[in-house]
Design brief:
Helices cover about 55% and strands about 10% of the residues. By secondary structure, it is of the alpha+beta class.
Length: about 850
Amino acid sequence: MTPTETMSVATHVAPPASLSLAGEALKAVALRFPPRPAEDDWPTTACERADILARLEHPPLRPVDVRQHRARIRGARQTLQWLETFPGATWQQRWNTSPASTLPGNDWARLAPEWIGTAVGPSQRQALSGGLLSLICADVVRPALPWLLSRTSANMTSLRTGLIPVRDPEGFAQLEALIESATWSSKVGRDALHSLVKIVAAKGGTLADITVGDAVEYLAALKAANKAATAKARGNTLFYAWLRELGTLPAEAPSSLRYLANTSGQVSMEQLVDRFGVRCRPVRDLLVDYLKERQPGLDYTSLNNLSRHLASNFWGDLEQHHPGIDSLHLAPEVSAAWKQRCRTRIERRRQPDGKVREVVTVRANVASIMLSVRAFYLDIAQWAIDEPARWGPWAVPSPIKDADVAVVKDNKRRKARMDHRTRERLPALPVVARAASSWLNEAKARLQALMDTPPGGQFAFAGDAFRRAAKDGTTWVVNIATGRRVDLALAEGRAFWAWAMVEFLQHTGVRIEEMLEASHHSLIQYRLPTTGEIVPLLQIAPSKTDEERVILVSPELADVLSAIIARIRDPRTGAVPYVSSYDMAEKTWNPQMPLLFQWCRSGESSRLSPKLLREALQEVLASTNLTDSAGRPLDFSPHDFRRIFITDAIRSGLPPHIAQVIAGHTSINTTMGYNAIYPGEAIEAHRAFIARRRALRPSEEYRTPTNEEWDAFLGHFERRKLSIGICARAFGTPCIHEHACIRCSMLRPDPAQRHRLVEIRDNLIARITEAEQEGWLGEIEGLQVSLASAEEKLTQLDAEQVRQRQVIDLGMPRFSQIATRISTARGPSS
């Protein structure tokens, strides 16, 4: 327990739980797209019994097997005779009044012989089931969805093989041609096909007649039939994706039904407030009106947070501790007690022994709550001047004073915490990157070992023994030692996306929502106007600051992007699939795009969720055994990579204003807040020094240079380059030795060009010898000066190389020497 945590006490009461808005998006879709009503009268259900039986005698309703055909005809005749005993003008109306329609479909084979009054036996039950199946395929009766959902998989297989040739053979053949064969023949593919068959059997018509409302109604019935099997209900949305691919749904239909049951969408202001159960109706209406007034100037995320601060953290807490309160005018002791409670919150933490302990911790966003409440009071007071009848009765003094919203100390503490977190994780980043790569390679090797093992066989990997599932085509294995069942294909996928996330974030420094919104269209090319070289760029979509920016793609990042694109391409077309994504902040669905971070789950391509990526990252971290300064396992969040990226870039010499552009910050202060190396005092001192220096120098030196001045400045540095080094003369100064560079003291020789200096020295010696032989005494003096300068520069290069290689032993001071120096410095004791 940290110093900021205390054990919960009896006087501290947890705030009331808010109502979840999950599923509101599905309700909105169901309201907008109603299902087709259940009919009880259509041509085939109004036919005479003899006409129906005669129709069953002909293909495709007649099975090939003669015995099976006779049993079905007998069962259909007995079922129709039984239905004639119930009131109704059509067979569907008689079915609706029979007891069979009110009981689950799995009771039909067991109770039908008793209802119909025939002998009870396996053959008779099989005949009645086959007869009813023929009547359903012939569209004589349409059982409801709950009835069909309770039937066994064997019954559904028979229904599929019997219904498709009769109802819509062309539509199902067209659908099969659009779907990949591996997905069509897989378990999830068969489940999706069965879903479509059930909807056609219950609603009638063809695949083209299925509406969005029918699909939503089917999901609701499936959820009710499988309350404990949420995963099954979630995986069965593949049939809707198939309908979208078939092109039978309208353009305004939802792009996916997969996550609608777990999302809320943008709800009304009334729903935002009512989820917290405000008891005082006038205050509830006031909060709704206030949010509506603020709505035009705020995004949905801000409105969501504001409703929580006002309706839950503020007024909900007051109603809990002061039942019956109905005024915003708070007594001093009431407001003081609320402020004290607002500074802490209760966390429920599960201990290693399984027990749950309540811990009172300091609330991190207390300043945000205080500011929201203060703005609430001040806005009402301001609006009361313009609309006294509407806002005047609620205008009262604000209980939040200036001192309550002072955030200077909080910001400094937050900055210190973030700096410590960044400095602790920066050295561990290479270890995490290597661990992610090793984790992926191990997962690939384990999956390959599975593929090399026949179904039902055993294999060993990394000291563990596994048994592959007996069914072909599955990637499930059982750890023989622990009995744990694992899907190795799923594990390999999680390892790949953990590696891709680590590499992507550490090379770009983007936010996780920006990473998840990166698409195949984000990769663009830029041709340099000077050299014509093509540079790859990554376009970052607007997120937090609504500003688009581009990032240079490094070779390491290019390898990661290539691996991602190769993994997500459609094996048939080679294109990146278009998927829809849900904006968790704005609670809206984005248009379909070829997102990079997507995977095929349960046969349907969907965007990777932040939760899955965070869990996959924790799996990688668990394999590193890294610990923090307190000895606890070191954790990484996706935003840690962003702070590390900015810190490392500035530490490596990147100017802060360039880092600001790359990070997408609107203010350089935000960028420097991410930097964990240089303290704020050093930055302010540097800025003050620049301001003082500019005040002392002429103002003309800070004007914008002309094109001619800029070209002259660049040309100066180009003209300083020499074959044996570089000239160090200042800008705007002429050559003092008339380009006799070997003699010039401003020449800075390059160690890599030492061989050129040796050649010049040897050439000078040869020329001096020649001049002495020929008697050119006037030239010997000048050549000797140049030779002395060349030898001096060679001596400087050699001395510099010796100095760089030299190791100086500083020694270790002994304690007696330190004590003697301290006593000498203090002087004699008094």
